[in-house]
């Protein structure tokens, strides 16, 4: 759920895709999958959609869905220290691992930007 009301139509963007999308390279491991994401050369721009506060403020991400947010700078000019605020919730009905796994940059310690390369390590779900 996105709590920040945008002041620009394209201020808050989000991306969600299945981990096995043709847009990503994925490789099988013994306990899951390694997903390589390459958003370079502007590829990332077609992956993101605008969040509409009256229609898409509540978004559901399936298990192991690759998702990201991108906040356009310069829109909330009337709000001091503005930013994108989101709330995450998780159902425990069928989830035996209560953790969110973050995708990382192949370059240690680098903060990811939309056009960067990222690596996501996904674990197999065990019923």
Précis, in short:
The protein has strands at residues 12-18, 25-29, 32-38, 49-50, 65-71, 117-123. With 127 residues, it is mostly beta strands. The radius of gyration is 16 Å and the shape is globular.
Mean pLDDT: 77
Helix content: under 10%
Number of helices in the DSSP assignment: 0
Give me the side-by-side strand order of the main sheet.
4-1-5
Order of helices and strands: EEEEEE
First-residue to last-residue Cα separation: 27 Å
Our estimate of the beta-strand percent is: 25-35%
Unreliable parts: none
What composes the largest sheet? 3 strands, antiparallel
* Net shape: globular
Radius of gyration: 16 Å
What's the number of extended β-strand segments? 6
Structural class computed from helices and strand pairing: mainly beta
């Amino acid at each position: 759920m996105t709590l920040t009301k945008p002041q620009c139509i394209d201020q808050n963007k989000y991306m969600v895709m299945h981990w096995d999308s043709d847009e990503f390279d994925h490789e099988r491991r013994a306990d899951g999958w390694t997903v390589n994401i390459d958003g370079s050369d502007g590829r990332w721009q077609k992956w993101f959609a605008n969040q509409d506060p009256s229609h898409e403020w509540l978004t559901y991400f399936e298990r192991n869905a690759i998702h990201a947010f991108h906040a356009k700078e310069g829109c909330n000019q009337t709000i001091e220290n503005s930013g994108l605020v989101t709330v995450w919730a998780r159902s425990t009905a069928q989830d035996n691992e209560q953790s969110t796994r973050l995708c990382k940059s192949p370059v240690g310690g680098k903060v990811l930007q939309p056009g960067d390369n990222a690596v996501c390590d996904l674990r197999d779900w065990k019923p």
